[in-house]
């Protein structure tokens, strides 16, 4: 019996330490929960609710500042940004570059100048500090492996994509999404409207579907139902991460991209807290947390590496400025519908 005394004492000690540790952790969580909220900010945004709710919860947990999210549709945010009589309450705006540029030109934001924002590349922020890009999502080509191993490996530019050949393309309908339509706006700015529309028309023999959702071209390519999908890198990265047989290709002749950024409203009652929130969004810690939660954008924080494509190539962005007006967008969409989508020769 004596030989069991020592092991029994050790086992009791281990169990006791485990119980102590669990109780200590529970008490610590209770104490943390009791910590008072030290501030509150109101954020207007047209970003997905899943993303904004996740960020708001994380920020309150870390910084003890309550983030109240006021969700808007893309159209509501565009109208709010352009209107001179729109409600100016709240503290922060999280939205697209276009909306940020328009509202900044209307004098709705206060300038922010600090070290973290200064590190962001010039083409991803306002030159006067009225807004700053947090992340961006470029348009890429996705090819299924079978097609890529054949002729697909030679289709690495917008120019070669539009050549004559036996391949199928799926892309998102520009009318279905502001994010998808950004390709049209960027291409028109980069090439000029006549050339851009003529180019998009040259793709029609290849385009077998104009999808309603951003991720559909990537999904259909991953399933082998089309040769090439034109879509966002964020969607392509998720399918690649989950082992689907695809190649993600950055167009060598440059590509469109969609910037999401933040600005502090001029009439904000919590300016310091708002700037702190933007700094937190720009931090590498927050970027890594978002990636862990499968939000795989390219972040403007220079500490975060820009991913290469499946061929090991770097991303090339078109030198565009964005800031397209609501009226200008509607006009271009109408021209695309009449001169490309439903054009009859």
What does this structure look like?
Helix 2 links the parallel strand 1 and strand 2. This protein has 14 helices and eleven strands. It has helices at residues 5-34, 49-63, 74-82, 97-105, 115-118, 145-148, 158-161, 178-191, 193-202, 216-222, 233-241, 271-282, 284-292, 326-341; strands spanning 39-45, 65-71, 92-96, 109-110, 132-144, 169-172, 207-211, 228-232, 246-249, 257-265, 298-299. Strands 1, 2, 3, 4, 5, 6, 7, 8, 9, 10 and 11 form an eleven-stranded mixed beta sheet that branches. By secondary structure, the chain is α/β, with parallel strands linked by helices. 44% of the residues lie in helices and 18% in strands. The N and C termini lie far apart (98 Å).
Can you give keywords for this protein?
345 residues; alpha/beta; 14 helices; 44% helix
Question: Would you summarize the structure shown here?
Answer:
This protein has 345 residues and is α/β, with parallel strands linked by helices. It has helices at 5-34, 49-63, 74-82, 97-105, 115-118, 145-148, 158-161, 178-191, 193-202, 216-222, 233-241, 271-282, 284-292, 326-341; strands spanning 39-45, 65-71, 92-96, 109-110, 132-144, 169-172, 207-211, 228-232, 246-249, 257-265, 298-299.
Residues in β-strands, percent: 15-25%
Number of helices: 14
Profile the largest sheet. 11 strands, mixed
Mean pLDDT: 90
Give the topology string: H per helix, E per strand.
HEHEHEHEHEHHEHHEHEHEEHHEH
**What is the rounded Rg?**
25 Å
């Amino acid at each position: 019996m004596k030989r069991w005394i020592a092991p029994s004492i050790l086992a009791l000690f281990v169990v006791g330490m485990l119980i102590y540790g669990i109780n200590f952790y529970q008490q610590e969580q209770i104490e943390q929960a009791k910590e008072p909220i030290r501030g509150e900010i109101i954020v207007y945004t047209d970003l997905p609710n899943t993303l904004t709710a996740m960020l708001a919860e994380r920020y309150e947990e870390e910084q003890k500042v309550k983030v109240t999210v006021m969700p808007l549709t893309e159209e509501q945010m565009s109208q709010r940004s352009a209107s001179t009589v729109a409600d100016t309450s709240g503290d922060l705006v999280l939205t697209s570059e276009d909306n940020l540029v328009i509202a900044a030109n209307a004098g709705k934001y206060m300038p922010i100048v600090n070290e973290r924002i200064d590190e962001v590349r010039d083409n991803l922020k306002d030159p006067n500090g009225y807004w700053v890009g947090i992340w961006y999502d470029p348009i890429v080509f996705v090819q299924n492996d079978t097609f890529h191993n054949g002729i697909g490996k030679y289709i690495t530019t917008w120019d070669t994509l539009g050549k004559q050949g036996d391949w199928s393309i799926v892309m998102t309908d520009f009318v279905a999404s502001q994010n998808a339509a950004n390709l049209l706006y960027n291409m028109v700015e980069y090439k000029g409207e006549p050339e851009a529309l003529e180019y998009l028309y040259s793709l029609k023999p290849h385009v077998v579907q104009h999808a309603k959702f951003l991720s559909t071209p990537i999904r259909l390519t991953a399933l082998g139902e089309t040769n090439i999908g034109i879509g966002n890198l964020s969607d392509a990265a998720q399918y690649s991460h989950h082992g689907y047989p695809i190649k993600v290709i950055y167009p060598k002749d440059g590509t469109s991209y969609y910037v999401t950024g933040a600005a502090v409203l001029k009439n904000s009652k919590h300016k310091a807290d708002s700037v702190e929130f933007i700094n937190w969004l720009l931090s590498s810690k927050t970027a890594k947390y978002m990636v862990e939660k499968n939000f795989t954008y390219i972040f403007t924080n220079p500490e975060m590496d820009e991913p290469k494509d499946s061929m090991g190539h770097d991303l090339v962005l078109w030198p565009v400025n964005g800031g397209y007006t609501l009226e200008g967008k509607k006009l271009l969409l109408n021209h695309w519908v009449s001169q490309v989508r439903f054009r009859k020769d």
